[in-house]
Amino acid sequence: MARKLSRRDLAQYAARQLTDGAPYKKIAMQLAAYLIESRRTNELSVIIRDIAAHLAYMGHVAGTLTSAHELNAETVKAIETFTKQKTGASNVSLDTIIDESVLGGIKLELPGTELDTTITRQLTILKTRYKKA
Amino acid sequence: MSELSITQLSKELRSAIEGLETAGDLDEVGVVLRVGDGVAWIHGLRSAGYSEVLQIETDNGITEAFALNLLEDEIGAVLLGEDSNVKAGQTVRLKGTVLTVPVGPELLGRVVDPLGRPLDGGPAIKATAQGLVERNAPGVMDRKSVHEPLMTGIVSIDAMFPIGRGQRELIIGDRQVGKTAIAIDTMINQGKQNTGVINVYVAIGQKRSKIARLVERLKAEGVMAQTIIVATSPSDPASMLYLAPYSATAMGEYFRDNSEHALMIYDDLTKHAVAYRQMSLLLRRPPGREAYPGDVFYLHSRLLERSAKLSDALGGGSLTALPIIETQAGDISAYIPTNVISITDGQIFLETDLFYQGIRPAISAGLSVSRVGGAAQTPAVKSVSSHLKLGLSQFRELASFTQFGSDLDDSTKKQIERGQRLTELLKQHQYQPLSVWQQVVSIVCVTAGYFDAVPVAKIKDVQTAVLTRAWADHKKEMTILDSGAKPTEETSKLIETVATTVAKGFNG
Questions:
Q1: In this complex, is the C-beta atom of A115 within 8 Å of any C-beta atom belonging to chain B?
Q2: Interface ipTM > 0.85
Q3: Which residue of A9, B310, B358, B476 is most buried, as measured by CB atoms within 10 A?
């Protein structure tokens, strides 16, 4: 029976292949085959997070930027610059998402870290403080 | 620089500080993978420390958990609240601290949960200080040897198995033999004798009705004002039962570290071990003997080591512990009992047979021990206890001969009769602890033979009569005796006079 590879090992392998320029389809097929054979397909979402985390460690940060309203290009650029400064990444790529439920502010989700200045989060904190009081 | 400009500078600084807005920063986050049975498995948060508090953002606010399993790919965190609010996919943040609880005099007279939240319906506790739930025990050089007595008010304990401030004395026995009763009497005695010792009673998985009765009893005896009760019931999550003794110890340590004296009662550590076993199995830790995790000894040793007598340089405060362990069918060689016996500085063993014979407290003189012994005994009690121990040990050896009745020689008969009177003397009603002078007078009356002619069944009555007469006629001398000083010859003669006079009226 094949040795069980930890999620971290899988993520490191995939991240290295991607940064070396291997095609997405090839890596995807390899990972899919391994996950199906080892019956670990339910770990897929977690492995994707681990790959993103490892890529970030290697200087390639991919994240999502959520706001209640559409942000202009300057704002997005400023946030990308902020992300580069904070993470030390050489390459930043952000997917923008419009979600009215956050009410206001922005939520920047990066691998393993997050900046959440949304009104929804402030309300959650207020709710907790009110319950404690 | 003129005063005016300093004031101006101060004003400008304050206004500048208020005006500054802190920019947000990236927080390390994780995500809940799955949750169930009070445990949440979390992905991410690679810099989380052992026992660090995690904050899970749920729809109903933030639920806290603490990290207990730090695995390569995920963290097993035990929830500090209901797991019904926590769902997979929710964001988790590091709080940046380990678990703390409110500590200080604001908790006195209150009933709280292991997180310091009030359970007695009273106002919110506004404590100014926080204590670490998990904390290192004082080092060797930070301690002083145990030398001050902690009087329980129970004659057999104070005379034969004395407890000192800073000692750990285990109370062990089967169910319903009076373990908690001894603990309660000890707490009541701290109030009655104005010792200034703060009581901290930890109810681990105890019925709420029992806790309510305890609170009522302590209020009736006027002791509640110097008592803190940390309560968990069987319906609380295992994480709360696990934390309860550690949180309570943090509350007791506040007084220890501020040159005061506190008494911890852990009722009981058997349920604590069971709760920890449940948590460990749910965290997928490998089970050991009796399915307990491998570190179940460490669970109790690190708790009980925090009870200590501090050196004078650190204020001389103390934290005394009376842990309680429940045995099954009197088996003190089982896993958890032997663990705790080896940790503590002695044990008070309660026997079911003695209980049903009417000997209450049902303390086994043969199996009980105090490793601190006379070093922590008041001189007054120490001077009379040797005769008590000798008389009882001789009686134990001859106990099997009592059935022979008149076939025995006079010396053996005398020892048996003395032993029966000593056994009768050591019986004590609940909630009636005796002070030092009362214990000394009572013991002397029997060991010196003043009650030899009194029938065994009337020993308690004559004891009460002697104590009443001694206090009424010789209050000054009894007060001096109560201070703990060894009885003088005059005091001894006085006791003899009172005892022989009163005993005449009870002679058979």
A1: yes
A2: no
A3: B310
